Amino acid sequence: MELAPGAVHLRSYLGLDAQRALVAECQALMDGAVPAYVPTVRGGGKMHVRMLCLGRHWNGQTYRYEPKRTDFDGLPAPPLPKSFKDLANTIAHRAGMALAADLCILNYYDADGRMGLHQDKDESPRSLEAGFPVVSVSLGDTARFLFGGLRRKDPITAIPLESGDAFVFGGPARLRYHGVSRIAPGTAPPELGLHGRFNLTFRQY
Ligand code: SIN
Ligand code: MN
Questions:
Q1: Ligand 2 centre and the CA of 90: distance in Å?
Q2: What mean pLDDT value characterizes the chain?
Q3: Which of these, 41, 47, 52, 125, has the minimum number of CB atoms within 10 Å of its CB?
Q4: Where does the pLDDT of residue 52 fall: very low under 50, low under 70, confident under 90, or very high at 90 and above?
């Protein structure tokens, strides 16, 4: 369903088996050799998610991408698995857009997880100008996703993102403000055995 030009919500894109497999991969990555962490952003506040960047690291102090996590432990960002890349590019295609994803920001939200309204604008000027989309995949508890306009004060629509949903924003929607106001604890499909929510956002640097 197209919510605005370039903004497409693909509900129940992933079936339960695919969700279960992806949850297991996310858990292994989050607790792997290069673990997820809670970033401290510019100004000193802590984010309300655990984050792990794949392919390229997003630095919460400089708001730039880099190969190693110089804002945290200096470890290199783990590579973006080919299966993740293929998933993202296929979803973009289904939404009518082209993407060659080369990075993913994987976030874990616990019952208190949230993310303030922001634009995704730290990718390369070339990528932003081309309107290569952000592809978001949600797993676990339902999120109240906020989707606004190109200015912070523009009206905002609240969209429930459920486990297995994909959401794509590219082209004229690429720089729309968005965020997550809250998680609905205990709403994950029981088959996943997941408390909380994973969200993967794929981008092309
Ligand atoms: C993000 O904007 O980076 C995350 C969005 C979400 O968790 O759905
Ligand atoms: Mn974002």
A1: 20
A2: 98
A3: 125
A4: very high
Rounded to whole angstroms, the Cα distance separating 16 from 87 reads 15
Substitution candidate for ligand 1 out of 13, 115, 146 with most atoms within 8 A of CB: 115
Question: 142-147 and 178-184: which strand pairing?
Answer: antiparallel
- The DSSP line for 65-120 is EESB-TTTT-PBPPPPPHHHHHHHHHHHHHTT------EEEEEEE-TT-BEEEE--
| Nearest ligand, CA 145 | 1
Q: How many CB atoms lie within 10 A of CB 100?
A: 12
Q: 76 C-alpha to center of ligand 2: Å?
A: 22
Residue 9 CA to residue 167 CA, distance in Å, equals 5
What pLDDT was estimated at residue 104? Answer: 98
**Sorting pLDDT into bands at 50, 70 and 90, what band is 199?**
very high
Q: How many CA atoms lie within 13 A of 189 on its CB side?
A: 18
- In the chain, which ranges are continuous DSSP H helix? 16-30, 82-94, 125-130
* pTM of the full structure: 0.97
**Are the beta carbons of 157 and 9 closer than 8 angstroms?**
no
Count of alpha carbons within 13 Å of 134, Cβ hemisphere only? Answer: 24
- How would residue 47 be classed by pLDDT, with cut points 50, 70 and 90? very high
Which-ligand-closest: CA of 136?
A: 1
